[in-house]
Design goal:
This protein has 111 residues and is an all-beta fold. The protein is built from no helices and 9 strands. β1 (2-7) and β2 (12-18) form a beta hairpin.
């Protein structure tokens, strides 16, 4: 996952830093969302160890750097695949994550 910032003075994008490499056997980084204030970054994967499951990780901007804070345990949603969609509130305190059982889709809300 790369974080980029827009520079109004030069009208260009610049790379801030690489946040994290994808864990093996995942599609980590396929879905990302950042809070409106730019301080909370959520990154999701719909696979775990090459199979179904899915997870998300939360990073917080501290002193200009995104630092890992929390993750969803892979067994939190038995029989589901999560990470299809992510949406975070402007303050970064509420996350909606899209999940599916293969026949039924639903959204979990974290506060």
């Amino acid at each position: 996952v790369l974080i980029m910032s827009w520079d109004d003075a030069t009208d260009t994008w610049s790379t801030d830093r690489q946040v994290i490499q994808a864990p093996n056997g995942t599609d980590f980084g396929r879905r990302v969302t950042i809070s409106g204030d730019g301080r909370a970054l959520y990154v999701a994967s719909t696979t775990v160890n090459g199979g179904e499951g899915g997870f998300w990780k939360l990073y917080r901007r501290l002193s200009g750097e995104f630092v890992f804070v929390d993750t969803t345990p892979t067994q939190a949603f038995p029989g589901t695949t999560c990470g299809y969609a992510l949406k975070v509130s402007s303050d970064g305190r509420t996350l909606a994550i899209g999940c599916s059982t293969g026949t039924v889709g639903f959204v979990y809300k974290y506060v």
